[in-house]
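Students often ask why inverse folding is considered easier than folding. One informal answer: many sequences map to the same fold, so there is more than one right answer. In these notes we will look at a single instance of the problem. The structure comes first.
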């Protein structure tokens, strides 16, 4: 049954801002897996984390993500969680997506850091029961592939040691962002985070 549905990877994050590491990782995953597309699901501001002063407005993060992915045919910026009840739990996102897009099979893409904390996720058992999970490496987070349950696949991609936090710091220090974020969003990133 899964074969005749379009396998679509869900890559959730705050993308605050999106950077070339996110995009290069998605390219690698598209190459190595039988994914038709990867949807970058931009997480809305968590109402309980209002104090997270660094988190840019939802719409601005979405716009930058859309612009950054314009030339990537199999990647899509997605505001789906903006329209769901808050806080948005990945289980609910996947369930709603499955109802709204019955022709697709959704798979969750997470880093090794998130995999090691997965048992603390809301409804994690249901996610494992109904959705394939692809785990990519993160520096400092060692995962034992042999202990992964059925339906969870470790994808050996290169390490992209770049973070949105670093990008924001570079902007504040007026450093060059060349090669770290897509060229076309550099002016916006400087304006929004400067």
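Output (designed amino acids):
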């Amino acid at each position: 049954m899964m074969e005749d549905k379009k396998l679509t990877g869900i890559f959730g994050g705050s993308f605050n801002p999106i950077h070339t590491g996110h995009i290069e990782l998605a390219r690698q995953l598209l190459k190595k897996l039988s994914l038709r597309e990867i949807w970058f699901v931009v997480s809305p501001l968590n109402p309980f984390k209002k104090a997270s002063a660094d988190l840019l407005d939802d719409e601005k993060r979405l716009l930058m993500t859309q612009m950054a992915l314009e030339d990537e045919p199999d990647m899509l910026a997605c505001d789906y969680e903006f329209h769901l009840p808050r806080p948005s739990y990945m289980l609910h996102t996947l369930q709603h997506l499955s109802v709204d897009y019955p022709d697709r099979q959704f798979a969750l893409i997470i880093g090794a850091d998130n995999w090691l904390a997965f048992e603390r996720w809301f409804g994690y058992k249901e996610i494992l029961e109904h959705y394939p999970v692809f785990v990519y490496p993160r520096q400092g987070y060692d995962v034992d592939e042999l202990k992964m349950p059925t339906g969870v696949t470790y994808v050996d991609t290169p390490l992209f040691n770049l973070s949105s936090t670093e990008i924001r710091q570079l902007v504040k220090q007026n450093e060059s962002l060349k090669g770290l974020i897509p060229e076309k969003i550099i002016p916006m990133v400087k304006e929004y985070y400067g």
